[in-house]
């Protein structure tokens, strides 16, 4: 089996995992249980004094996308799972905001350049076979001086609370155990970002059960 076919098979397994979780995902999600906190943190991280063009990569059920739209931004959001996108559309409708949702794998998103002021990736990097490709996509989508906001955590700290994949899938995901802010900074620098700024201090404690070390990191496209 070629590596390309192998990647297709892996992506199908990852997408199926999240599609199966979509109907009940928001019932235990941090962005629902601590919605006001996430809104405050993301509003600060966006550093926006007027409406901006936001692209949310791997939007899931709309955690970042809905908040960004509520803050007055123009939002496009992508996810590979049709079921996650359906849940996100329902969340947007309930919030009374308009968002352009699309079902797409990150690698299939049109290679548009300089169309966004802000790109968000929340809890996405740990799910990817090639996480650097997602950061390079974010760099390409951003206008010069644009901002990427990445949030993720060291999920292996609290294994009983985390979502995990079958072993044959997990073994092929380099960040399956999660990542630290220091790791994210190195990856973002390699993707061409500078001027890092952290925002997780706005949480009084970890927003995830098990006291998972989490980060919310902004960086600028030079």
UniProtKB/TrEMBL annotation:
Pfam families xrefs: Methyltransf_11 (PF08241)
EC number: 2.1.1.222, 2.1.1.64
Cross-referenced CDD domains: AdoMet_MTases
Listed InterPro entries: Methyltransf_11 (IPR013216), SAM-dependent_MTases_sf (IPR029063)
Residue ranges of domain Methyltransferase type in the record: 55-150
UniProt key word Glycosyltransferase: no
One function term, GO molecular function aspect: 2-polyprenyl-6-hydroxyphenol methylase activity
Keyword Transmembrane appears in the UniProt entry: no
Matches recorded under PANTHER family: TRANS-ACONITATE 2-METHYLTRANSFERASE (PTHR43861:SF1), TRANS-ACONITATE 2-METHYLTRANSFERASE-RELATED (PTHR43861)
Name this protein carries in UniProt: Class I SAM-dependent methyltransferase
